[in-house]
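Incident log, structure service

09:12 report received: a user says their structure output differs between two submissions of the same chain.
09:20 pulled the input from the user's history:
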Amino acid sequence: MAKLKEGWVSQLETLIKGRENRDEWVDDSVSAGTSVDTVHIQTAQGLVTFKVRADTSCKAVADLLRAFNEPGCKLEVVRGPRGGLRLGVNGKFDPKLNLLVKK
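09:34 re-ran on a clean worker, output below:
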């Protein structure tokens, strides 16, 4: 029996469909920093709501989804370079993965 996908995985897969290996924004029709979606992800800190920004790289999202399927992958809230909180994988964040904690 196939493992049921978590809702946020399906949301992100839909957002980047057909562009998984391209280093382009998930939505280039709006300016950088604009929220285009929200996802609820179970992290080490509990269930957290993240804003998906338009300038998130499709490739970075695909890398996140691949890492999530690896055994021992730990998703957590980490501090970004300018103090914002964002999604990190195993304690590190990808500067092109602009999933920021929604306040």
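09:41 both user submissions now match this output. Likely a transient worker issue. Closing.
09:42 reviewer note: The chain is about 20% helix and 30% strand. The first strand starts at residue 35 and ends at 43.
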